[in-house]
Prior knowledge:
By secondary structure, the protein is an all-alpha fold. It has a single domain (2-103), classed as 3 helical TM bundles of succinate and fumarate reductases. Helix content is 70%, strand content 0%. It has helices at residues 2-21, 31-37, 41-69, 74-100. Helix 1 (2-21) crosses helix 3 (41-69) and helix 3 (41-69) runs antiparallel to helix 4. The longest helix has 29 residues, at 41-69. The protein is elongated, with a radius of gyration of 19 Å.
Amino acid sequence: MRVSGVVLIVLVFGHLFVNLLVGEGVHAIDFGFVGGKWADPFWQWWDILMLWLALIHGGNGMRTVVNDYTKPGTVQRILKGAILLAVVALIVLGTLVVFTFDPCPVGSPADLLPSFCAA
């Protein structure tokens, strides 16, 4: 938890710095900004690492809360199972979104594509 917390601080503040302070700031964030960012494998892995660490860190914290405030038994197992299911589902879905994101899908009408896509 301590190591993931420190790494998350670096990842989150780096994310905020690039998205909010560099260039035009928050006004530049749109579909094209995200598409351009995720075209670079460095930013894909940055966001994946941030996603995985945040979900694992948060899920482990929630597991600790469940351990602290419930008695061992069926309720505790159900709550821990629900946390595990949510964390795994969000990790899988988030990873799929980052690695399968295509801002320029083949066969789309040119007027619907972002300006950086080749027509």
